[in-house]
Amino acid sequence: MNEQNTKNWSTAQKKDKWREREVGSLWKRKSDKGSYCTGYIVSDELGNEVRQRVIMFANKSKTNEKSPDFIIYKSVEPDAPQAKAVSTATADTQAVTREQSSLPNNEFDDDGIPM
After folding, report:
1. pLDDT of 2-57, one tens digit each?
2. If DSSP codes are grouped into helix, strand and coil, which group holds residue 99?
3. CA pair distance 47, 85, nearest whole angstrom
4. Is the distance from CB of 56 to CB of 34 less than 8 angstroms?
5. What is the rounded distance in angstroms from the CA atom of residue 109 to the CA atom of residue 115?
6. Pairwise CA distance, residues 113 & 60, whole Å
7. 18, 50, 59, 93: least CB-packed within 10 angstroms?
8. CA neighbor of 99 nearest in space, from 65, 55, 38, 63
């Protein structure tokens, strides 16, 4: 194996190791109110890979160095058919997410994440 092939093989191995550790992806977005990220986190539920859509905002109420810089919320689709069956806790999360982001509803509907 020549030197170039060895470098390529080594680089491919490093990428594979990172790919194995990957748990999700985020995309930077901008609105009139500021920047935020949307994406997904992959989890394993009883042997099934599940993608949870999320939205992340800067922590505007950071009080000290130990407070998180960013807060991640589950993405909530406001016009989803199951919206009427949403529990109070989920409804509260939706309200907090909208309040924190101050984004219009249409920015929650289509975040451009491939699913």
Report:
1. 666 667 767 777 778 888 899 999 999 999 999 999 999 999 989 999 999 999 99
2. helix
3. 26
4. no
5. 13
6. 25
7. 18
8. 55
